[in-house]
Specification:
By secondary structure, this protein is an alpha+beta fold. The chain has 5 helices and 9 strands; from the N terminus they run αβββααββαββββα. The strands form 4 sheets. It has a 3-stranded antiparallel beta sheet, with helices on one face. The protein has a two-stranded antiparallel sheet with strand order 1-2. A two-stranded antiparallel sheet has the order 3-6. A hairpin with a 5-residue loop joins β4 and β5. The longest helix has 17 residues. It is flat and about 55 Å long.
Length: 152
């Protein structure tokens, strides 16, 4: 292949990458199982232009509303008027057990810790594909809104 042709192909790849609007997060899980647990540090986050499809993704028992109703707004976030969403990726095994949770979009001011606390105290229904349960990951948004806090 000529140098010119290689440059043209590389140029098209570069243009395609720049025009991509949505980059999905795929997780490559290098699992180190010890006593049925997963080492959260072994999860590698990659940017990719792919999609992973499953028939039924894992679900929070009680749904997001139940999760949000248990939220305790961190005092530091209230004092600094911090609002927004914390996104947490959760690895759920084929029995619905939570193996690992990691914040992928942070707000700080104690919101990340509260989001992880909410996730770690939640129960899940396992996901499946073609009738078989698998270990899967899901992304869960936790909403921090001062308007909701003032209503209570």
């Amino acid at each position: 292949m000529t140098s010119f042709l290689k440059d043209v192909i590389f140029g098209f790849q570069k243009i395609f990458a720049m025009k991509t609007l949505i980059i999905l997060i795929l997780i490559s899980i290098d699992v180190y199982c010890q006593n049925g647990s997963i080492n959260c540090d072994s999860i590698i986050f990659k940017e990719d232009r792919g999609c992973v499809y499953y028939e039924k993704m894992p679900e929070l028992i009680g749904g997001l509303d139940s999760l949000q109703s248990r939220l305790v707004y961190p005092q530091e976030a209230i004092e600094n008027k911090i609002e927004g969403k914390v996104y947490v990726i959760v690895v759920v095994d084929s029995l619905g057990n939570q193996l690992c949770a990691r914040v992928i979009k942070s707000l700080g001011y104690g919101c990340d810790e509260e989001a992880l606390r909410l996730i770690q105290t939640s129960k899940f229904l396992p996901g499946f594909h073609i009738g078989k349960h698998y270990t899967m990951f899901i992304s869960i948004p936790i909403v921090f809104s001062l308007k909701d806090e003032k209503k209570e």
